Amino acid sequence: MRRSAPFALSLLGLIWPMYCSAVNLPDYQATAIIEETWNRPFRLAIGELVVVSGVESALKSDVTKRKILQNEVPLYELLEKHGLVQLTEQHPTAGGSSNGIDQAPDPGISAMTVAPTQKALTLEKRTGKTPEAGAVWLPEGKFVVTKIVSNEPETKGLDQYRVVVCAYDAVWDPEWKALLEEAQKQTVSSQRKAVVLLYYDPNTGRWSVVTQDLANTDAPFATSHVKTFMQLK
To answer: What residues are paired with 160 via a beta bridge?
Structure first.
């Protein structure tokens, strides 16, 4: 039976508030999600990796090739400097591509083979993670949210988010702390602050961390990842 336009509008009136009303996320649940995310060890891809210039290049390239982005290369070089990996670098061909894959514009590296050192494998054992092919797990530390400053709902189209501002304590793994301090050119404190963006997936009914900005309590934020993400269309 054909439904009238008023019936369709009334049905829409029932459904629309389900999408528009903010999904509740109490502070204690936000704390649990953030801490669970932060306290996961860092998963580092190892083995043969092709370096691509961006996500678009990665999506267009050979799906059988494992890839990293160009901006991830400095991390691998820093890990090598700290004795956690050994790198064998490959240089691009004159044509700028290899095996049909768009290479990064950096003429220095087009691909690399990453081998974890015994030092990295020893650190992995401390995470309690089961070793897996193609990755090594590195501990970052232990992180505890000490205060939720604000927990505000945000929307982007029909998508629902929460912007959580919090303070937290960090007990850094010594190796990870040394890496961060060299990368950031400053001391990383145990007293920290964060702006964390969480996304609600209506299909699973779960929240997850999308992006974040982190800093020492007494320092300004050096990034604006949350603001940038919310401004993207």
So the answer is: 155, 200
Q: How far apart, in whole angstroms, are the C-alpha atoms of residue 191 and residue 184?
A: 16
Dump pLDDT digits (tens) for 206-220. Answer: 999 999 999 999 999
Q: Which two tokens stand for residue 111?
A: 């691909």
Same domain, 49 and 87: yes
**Domain total in the chain:** 2
Rounded Cα distance, 169 and 167, in Å: 7
Q: Are 164 and 148 in contact (CB under 8 A)?
A: yes
- Residues 91 and 80: their CA atoms lie apart, in Å, by 18
Rg (CA), the chain: 22
Residue 2 lies in a domain: no
Q: Does 49 share its domain with 134?
A: yes
Per-residue confidence (pLDDT) for residue 22, from 0 to 100: 76
pTM of the model: 0.80
Q: Where are the alpha helices (DSSP H) in 39-105?
A: 55-60, 73-81
Q: 191 has which bridge partners?
A: 169
Q: Within this chain, do residues 219 and 187 fall inside the same structural domain, yes or no?
A: yes
Residues 50-66: tens digit of each pLDDT: 998 876 555 555 666 78
CA 178 from chain centre, in angstroms, equals 20
What are the φ/ψ torsions at residue 187 (nearest 5 degrees)?
-75, 135
- Token pair of 70, please? 């160009």
Q: What is d(CA 113, CA 85) in angstroms, rounded to the nearest whole number?
A: 10
